[in-house]
Amino acid sequence: QVVELSQQLTMESKRSMQLEAQNRDLQEELSTLRGNCEELETSKCQLKEELEKLQHRLETNMVDHQQMEQYKREVEERADEDIRKKLLEVNLFLHAQAASQDRLEQIRSSHHASLRNQLKERIRDFECELNRIRNTQQEISFSREREMAELEMYTELYLEEVKTRRCLAKKLER
């Protein structure tokens, strides 16, 4: 039990130190936030003063309301005209791009068709060449077989001739 209590005490002391460190960090953060708050208050006061100055300037430098409305209408009309021009340019550009895209697709499809035809032709050429090689190989094979058969036949005939000569040679010697 004493060991458990000492372990608990050690754990609690570690936890206490961690909490103290965390408390210090939080206090530092709080003091930083207080400093920021004071800066914000100062800034708020400065902004209020600036706002008052701007309001005063606005009141003293106010342009005639009719002139302002006229200027606003002119600006809006010019902006609308500019927008219409830009939209027209964009439409023209999009049409040109679509036409270019169509042309590119046509070129691609014709190129693919051409490549397909070339590949088919090459495949046909290779197949013909392969058939020719196979036929040549078969002819060579048949020719070899014929030659081997003839060779065997001549060998047998030669061996028979050799036997016959030996027999005749023996008869002649007797």
From TrEMBL:
Record field: transmembrane: none
Keywords: Coiled coil
Signal peptide positions (record): none
Domain DUF3496: residue ranges: 116-174
Coiled-coil blocks: 9-68
Pfam family name, one: DUF3496
Protein name: ANR26 protein
Organism: Grantiella picta
